[in-house]
Amino acid sequence: MIKKINNIAVLTSGGDAPGMNAAIRAVVRACSYYNLDCTGIYRGYQGLIEGDFEKLDARSVRNVINKGGTFLKSTRSIEFKTKEGRAKAYENLKKAGVDALIVIGGDGTFTGGLLFNQEFGFPVVGIPATIDNDINGTDYTIGYDTALNTVVEAIDKIRDTASSHNRLFLIEVMGRDAGDIALNSGIGAGAEEILIPEEDGGVELMMESLEKSKKSGKTSSIIVVAEGEKSGKTIFELAEHIGEKYEEYDIRVSVLGHIQRGGSPSCFDRVLASKLGVGAVEALTDGKSNIMIGVHHQKVVHVSLEKALKEGRKLDKELRRVANITSV
Amino acid sequence: MIKKINNIAVLTSGGDAPGMNAAIRAVVRACSYYNLDCTGIYRGYQGLIEGDFEKLDARSVRNVINKGGTFLKSTRSIEFKTKEGRAKAYENLKKAGVDALIVIGGDGTFTGGLLFNQEFGFPVVGIPATIDNDINGTDYTIGYDTALNTVVEAIDKIRDTASSHNRLFLIEVMGRDAGDIALNSGIGAGAEEILIPEEDGGVELMMESLEKSKKSGKTSSIIVVAEGEKSGKTIFELAEHIGEKYEEYDIRVSVLGHIQRGGSPSCFDRVLASKLGVGAVEALTDGKSNIMIGVHHQKVVHVSLEKALKEGRKLDKELRRVANITSV
Amino acid sequence: MIKKINNIAVLTSGGDAPGMNAAIRAVVRACSYYNLDCTGIYRGYQGLIEGDFEKLDARSVRNVINKGGTFLKSTRSIEFKTKEGRAKAYENLKKAGVDALIVIGGDGTFTGGLLFNQEFGFPVVGIPATIDNDINGTDYTIGYDTALNTVVEAIDKIRDTASSHNRLFLIEVMGRDAGDIALNSGIGAGAEEILIPEEDGGVELMMESLEKSKKSGKTSSIIVVAEGEKSGKTIFELAEHIGEKYEEYDIRVSVLGHIQRGGSPSCFDRVLASKLGVGAVEALTDGKSNIMIGVHHQKVVHVSLEKALKEGRKLDKELRRVANITSV
Amino acid sequence: MIKKINNIAVLTSGGDAPGMNAAIRAVVRACSYYNLDCTGIYRGYQGLIEGDFEKLDARSVRNVINKGGTFLKSTRSIEFKTKEGRAKAYENLKKAGVDALIVIGGDGTFTGGLLFNQEFGFPVVGIPATIDNDINGTDYTIGYDTALNTVVEAIDKIRDTASSHNRLFLIEVMGRDAGDIALNSGIGAGAEEILIPEEDGGVELMMESLEKSKKSGKTSSIIVVAEGEKSGKTIFELAEHIGEKYEEYDIRVSVLGHIQRGGSPSCFDRVLASKLGVGAVEALTDGKSNIMIGVHHQKVVHVSLEKALKEGRKLDKELRRVANITSV
């Protein structure tokens, strides 16, 4: 028999992403709508272990929908990786009368939540929020769309300078395993080349393309490089590599870095976060557990946490083709 | 037998939308990639009639992907609504050696293109670009995502003032027949109420909700109103209507207006425009005609222009529900 | 003998302006730096009358420097215009042990502060914060620079549309008595004409200029109109007036409205607010009162409240000349 | 006897800065206003040597006021540092019938212009445009205000992440010799510490301040570091230095880099550029030469190029004090 849910706790964990606040707000508001208590947990799983809890009501989340970051804060907890840590967390939840837990974050967050559910049978639902868009079973993760806009706005600025000076810019964007940010922002920013983790031989293709560009008289270029690009070279080594072969290029490197995680969320991310937050609360009141609330074909879907954590996301080959064609 | 396509013309027509330049660029680049000629037509169907043509190559579209508006300009042509006008247009295309036409715009644009195709058998492909997202058969139109971001950014600014002064703001956003902008931006901006053309009785519901808010002590509110809202009242009359009943409210009206059509396109719109522009050229070289290139479930799809022009888009009821829940 | 200042109260009043939060923060931090107590007063003079006070310390103002609006909120108080109201306010300050009052706002705010000082001898210092830049004795008011950026960004968006369609846009910006916003944003946005309250005959000059533009074949135009423009016509009547004479123009009106008061403050406004906030606390601890802290030639200056309230700000004729020259 | 000026050439040189296009536009429009010819020179002094000239009229500079970079492009010319190079440049100007030259840029640009004037007696006027604000005799250089806004917006985004994770961020901003960007953006972004080239011992002060912060329980911090900070350590070495002493800090480094040079100019920079561009043309028609057109106390001023190039700009000590007080 399924226990009735009266009190739902919510936390954010792992790297922060724009729209996390909008997701928390939707969870809190949905609890309020369904007359459930809502317990906010500060600092992710670490706060769960330390009992850093606060009751949240509809008014607690006023004016947060447009704020970057997460007001519940986020940490990476080493203690939660131990059995003892998780046991403490469980005791705290019981003591506080919490019946279910919503965890907002990426794969590390879901791994923790899944383990916790398996050990204690505690109802857990995940909401995917990471700028990397690297979660299986959801078309989009919260924060990804905003990060893309941040990246193209930054590259637009760099292009002003690149065009003024006929320069070649290597721009590093986030994405350790997934090239989604690089590929989409590369198309969006009109990059001449895009290097992504999912492809081998990118550097050779880039060198060939620079050869062609040189012949056609093109002198300024933007090359977008995902963090996890496959060559084994740092972006500074890549710049040197090009410089050795093409002395005529005035090459610059820009690592966009942490600005990509911040900023006021886009409308897309705010609406997505609102849908998933409401969906998470409704899944729990429907007796569901151990799932991620995702979006597929614009509909809210339920995906088992195991499946969400599986690798196997594929590169969108059509998009790669579009990138190649529009950069001629 | 299908005539081989060697020269593709492209025009923008109707209300402009951010991302039109990105779509033109993708058409031009795809022509270049497939070694086709590309002919730009200025000022939409009027320029077609007047022969205002220019050859475009890959370099013609440098640094336009991030620009709002359309560098090919757009007009509403009365002459193209006459048989004589369209005949002149056809002659001009023949004279210029153009084999097919890509029209970028909304329903008016597609209606013209369809008629032209039917009369002269001239291959026409449409690309949906309008901030209203009111075209059948495509999940998104170019410019819609950018407009949503423009609207939520504007409302974020107004909320600063609303919160500082405990005021009630009525904010009019675009959308004559479709409530998509109002509903999504309303959720994204955290509006307390949303009035849309697809629903009757919105004003009564709003008044009830204000009654509740008043009782709960809430004093500042944002109400998003779509242009085509059903009450028959202007937004200024709505403000008066509220003011008569609730003297205690300090009510202000803001009509967002034309800023919603402009601005640098979002990454989403730039990528969408790139996909659709490439898809349009490839459809023509595949012998397709009389279709719109849309996007459905993140894939490029072909939709007959007749179907694209059909009414019957439905309100996303799930989204309406999310709006109601997150505004408690 | 001057009483030593141990406890300073701060309030915001009148129309809100971006950077008010940064000014409050600077006041609070300066109090903390000099080991003074700081008392925040909510809702301006009305909160003063109702005793809506809260102790503020350095941590109370974390993460507010970048927020628009004012977290202390602002109202226009009718009660403070009565002797009884002001007497209540005085009693509340005495009861709370407050020794001096910093008022952040525009001329209405300073008028209230001056009267209060005259009646009760209570030390009052003003900080000019209004988007209109219409205070005598300071080169800039807090919020003005941000409003200019908001206006030019909005007009940039509208110009996308104007250029795409060859349209004439009349754009109304704030400024009832002062043309500073219209003149500066008009130059900054590349407007063809600018109508301001300080000049007569603007409409006639505009009509002449449109005549010239028409002859030179110019078809899209931006005309910036200050709210308080002198013709006695509303902006919609102006549009009609033009339309009657020039049928060939496709004329649109845009009233920018309340977005001009909101938004994250520019760096200029944040730094200005920081300087003035610190300056206000230091003026009080130096025994000064009845003054406004302004900025002149990039230095912090003290101006008597009487002088700050005097009219007599002049139009910058050089700037008007630059506007005329750069719009040829 | 002074030769009448009929044809003025304009170029941009050195690092690009937002607002250069607005300055070019004002030069071109002022030439048009005074019925002078205007010759645009591409790629700075290198284009002068290569004769890369184009006639510009009022319409050539439509829709450029809001664009970053410089449409005339900019290079650093080694050839212009040789007598032969400059001689070629002089011949080209004579051949093209140019009577005077306006150079837009920073100190390198002015050094070139001064030398050219001294050797050939050719009238040269400079317009200060560099994001570093490091030119003597003008309160502001074009591009500086925009760069400050770009930096604070970037740091606002990083603070979202810093606050969410309780992290310490070291953020490198531009400024090799001048701390103006670091000091102003540091105040504007609410940085806890600011390291600038004009001060010794900044690192020690920073370490002391971190000690204090640690004791007071403060866990997230933003430290803004100017490129040319005095310690001789790179920002990565600084991070290590802190990490060795304070293991408890989760330290991250962000080098903002080239985004600081791009972007649409702020209203302040557009108006400044308009004033200086008009002033430069009027100075030449008044028979002036060998000067920079600057702004001092909001008025256009003439400064000899020698004086503009002199070092001796001082740190604004008042501003440093404000930084110390508002970061308590």
From TrEMBL, chains A, B, C, D:
MF-aspect GO terms: 6-phosphofructokinase activity; AMP binding; ATP binding; fructose-6-phosphate binding; identical protein binding; metal ion binding; monosaccharide binding
Entry binding sites for substrate: T130, I131, D132, R167, M174, G175, R176, E227, R252, H258, I259, Q260, R261
Question: Per the annotation, which location comes first and is thus the protein's main one?
Answer: cytoplasm
The record lists the catalysed reaction(s) as: beta-D-fructose 6-phosphate + ATP = beta-D-fructose 1,6-bisphosphate + ADP + H(+)
Q: Which GO terms describe its biological process?
A: canonical glycolysis; fructose 1,6-bisphosphate metabolic process; fructose 6-phosphate metabolic process
Cofactor(s) listed in the protein's UniProt record? Mg(2+)
Which InterPro entries does the record match to this protein? ATP_PFK, ATP_PFK_prok-type, PFKA_ATP_prok, Phosphofructokinase_CS, Phosphofructokinase_dom, PKF_sf
The subcellular location is: Cytoplasm
Residues where Mg(2+) binds: D107
Anything known on activity regulation? Allosterically activated by ADP and other diphosphonucleosides, and allosterically inhibited by phosphoenolpyruvate.
Which terms in the GO cellular component ontology are assigned?
6-phosphofructokinase complex
Q: In which pathway does it act?
A: Carbohydrate degradation; glycolysis; D-glyceraldehyde 3-phosphate and glycerone phosphate from D-glucose: step 3/4
Tell me which residues this entry annotates as catalytic.
Answer: D132
Top-level EC class? transferase
Q: Under which EC number(s) is this enzyme classified?
A: 2.7.1.11
**Phosphofructokinase domain: residues covered:** 7-284
Keyword set for this entry? Answer: Allosteric enzyme, ATP-binding, Cytoplasm, Glycolysis, Kinase, Magnesium, Metal-binding, Nucleotide-binding, Transferase
Pfam families, alphabetized:
PFK
Positions with a binding annotation for ATP? G15, R76, S77, G106, D107, G108, T109
> HAMAP family attached here?
Phosphofructokinase_I_B1 (MF_00339)
| NCBIfam families in the record | PFKA_ATP, PRK03202.1
Function per UniProt? Catalyzes the phosphorylation of D-fructose 6-phosphate to fructose 1,6-bisphosphate by ATP, the first committing step of glycolysis.
Give the family, as the similarity comment puts it.
Belongs to the phosphofructokinase type A (PFKA) family. ATP-dependent PFK group I subfamily. Prokaryotic clade 'B1' sub-subfamily.
| Quaternary structure, from the entry | Homotetramer.
Query: What protein name is recorded for this chain?
Result: ATP-dependent 6-phosphofructokinase
Question: What is the species of this protein?
Answer: Salegentibacter flavus
**Primary gene name:** pfkA
